[in-house]
Hints:
Strand content: over 45%
Structural class: mainly beta
Shape: globular
Distance between the termini: 40 Å
Largest sheet: 7 strands, mixed
Helix content: under 10%
Order of helices and strands: EEEEEEEEEEE
Radius of gyration: 14 Å
Number of helices: 0
Number of strands: 11
Amino acid sequence: xxxxxxxxxxxxxxxxxxxxxxxxxxxxxxxxxxxxxxxxxxxxxxxxxxxxxxxxxxxxxxxxxxxxxxxxxxxxxxxxxxxxxxxxxxxxxxxxxxxxxxxxxxxxxxxxxxx
Length: 115
């Protein structure tokens, strides 16, 4: 019922910034929570940032102060602003949406940070 498409990843130097986007489409449903996750080869997919329908947010300790999650309801899009990028931020970043009837994942977007 919900399709998610991430964009905005790329190759950047340490200290740079990126803004990732997650656009939702499909049959209209209520999205209760959006989350951003990241995964590197051989490791689990870990939550990075979460935003609820009331606008409240939470972040992993490793990204607090550098990452900001936001939502534009008019555009059905969730964003992840990433500042002060570090090489250890290199990963595939995934968008997630939780609805009353299920959860959905995007295809991921690669973020690579060079030192």
